[in-house]
Fold this sequence. Notes:
Blueprint: E1 7-8, E2 11-12, E3 16-17, E4 23-25, E5 33-39, H1 50-56, E6 79-81, E7 87-89, E8 95-97, E9 104-105, E10 108-109, E11 115-121, H2 130-146, E12 155-157, H3 158-161, H4 175-182
Parallel strand pairs: 3-7, 5-11, 5-12, 6-11
Antiparallel strand pairs: 1-2, 4-8, 6-7, 9-10
Helix pairs in contact: 2-4
Amino acid sequence: MKTHTSLSCGWLASARRCVSPHFNARPNNEVSLLVIHNISLPAGCFGLPHIDALFQGCLDLKADDSFSELNGLQVSAHFSIRRDGEIVQYVSCDDRAWHAGVSQFQGRENCNDFAIGIELEGTDFVAYTDAQYQQLTELTLEIMAQYPMINPTRIVGHCDIAPIRKTDPGESFDWRRYRDAIC
């Protein structure tokens, strides 16, 4: 499978860059985990500009009644993959994005310290698109090539590292399809 233009300084050349202020340096410069999430703003609505605005810290809280609960939230991911397959990058993979929150993987807390976060535009219960799986596969292969500590056993859902708080990417995510494509 052909991969994207390689990552340079943690940035994917083929991604639309939408820089977030919500990041900081990784404490040990370690990148060893990939976390798959889902997001839609408002919930269940796709193709709107609100995800970019949230990650950039400029979400119009008046745009939807549900946004009031996001007031003051400082959150980001390294990437999002829209329904049409467009990849947007917010934070360099070499930096720590704020996507996992309170989390734990194999006894280690604070997964943001060592994880790359990819948000799929979607919900737990709406099937993801073929374009999203294609782009996620290619992006994952590129990440694994650039960050060799990440392998298929170190790719998880947000639900796996924060099971009491989170359910994403949800039952609509086809883990078998994805794992077969990256192995």
